[in-house]
Amino acid sequence: MTTPTNLSDFRSSGTRETRVRYQVVALATTLAMVTYIDRVCISTLQTDIRRDLGLSIVQMGYAFSAFAMAYAAFEIPTAWWADRLGTRAVLTRIVIWWSTFTIATAAAFSYTSLLVLRFLFGAGEAGAWPCAARALSRWIPSRERGTVQGVFFAGAHLIGGLTPMFIVAMRPYLSWRQMFVMFGLVGFVWVTAWRIWYRDDPTQHATISKAERDRILAERPKDVPHVEGARYFLRLLGDRNVIALCIMYMSNSMMFYFCITWLPEYLRQRHGFDASALGFLSGLPLLVSVPSDLFGGIVTDRLSARFGLRIGRCVLGAIAYSISAIALWVAAASAAPLPAAILIALATGVCMFTLGAAWSVCSEVGRNHVGVVGAIMNTAGQIASMLCPVIVAYSVSWFRNWDFPLYLLSTLFAIGAVCWLLIDPNRPVFDDGVAVEARARAVA
Length: 444
What we know:
- By secondary structure, the protein is mainly α.
- It is 81% helix and 0% strand.
- The protein has 19 helices and no strands.
- α3 packs parallel to α5 (111-125), α6 (128-139) packs antiparallel against α17 and α11 (240-261) packs across α17 (370-399).
- Mean pLDDT is 85; it is low at 1-14 and 432-444.
């Protein structure tokens, strides 16, 4: 079969084009939503958990960090596995595992048991997002990737923003243990649909038309053979793009993790908001992120098509990060409760504006290594996420200071803005020549 090389080939083929790829987007987006339900619920329920298990604020900080620690440790191996075995099999394992340990969190009876359960939950969920990025890179034409990544993150942030309000509404009727069981069961519903419908490549799907398949394949870079051994990882970890992506993404992940762990307590203790306001203001940063995700994905694709990838991905990212840095600095310095809460939401929404660009760059520089490249970037982010709850906990416990974490985040966003400008999306980590040479050396 001859693969078409431009859009005129599709129009002349005479075959009606299906839209199967958008069903893949729907599956990936619902996956993102399930992950955020399971992550966000513990921050809203942490007051009840601390009371029942007798935990200090520092111990709760370590419980939050246990998830991020496991996520960081297992993400690259899981993504490496998916790049070789395919996302259908690996994501099935991931969702079953994390859903099981979401339910098991309900059985926590002590500080140690909670640490173990949250660590195992993180180990199970590790690799979910790079696997989703790989699935989208196989199914979505290049010119649509930023928009699709925006839809993906918008779904996650929408449900993340609504979850605190849902939990507040359900508190009179369900205990925190019953809520973990309820949220964990959702994952088993998703994985059933995934196993039945999804295929790793559009060429394997029975319902896709030739026109749609050809469109996807024509805009997908040629696969580069996977290389084994230490040289493969040295090339990845030493690449300028990968290093800049990692440093850039740390501030984004830390911002998100602050929102889903300590933000409710920050708003209550630092600014005195009552329970009725907390349900809305705790979810506001993620709700603001929904239109930001969607609009950011569309803007990055349109700017990239008109001005090139450096402008559409990197300059856009640098501007957004600079705005987030300023907003957080002002929020930390503000004594007015409502402006501070709004500025935190603004900073979060603006930084999430770049998610479509960030994960699209992973596809562009990683190509069919996108799972591992995305995992390395996300692992760096998870290291920052792992440190965030502990930094906040000790800042409050030792110094009675809720503002230091926001100043730290502001500084990290300023550094991230510089890193955006160092990224070149037009330069892949591996090209055909490098991969073939490395494969030859490995064989020899």
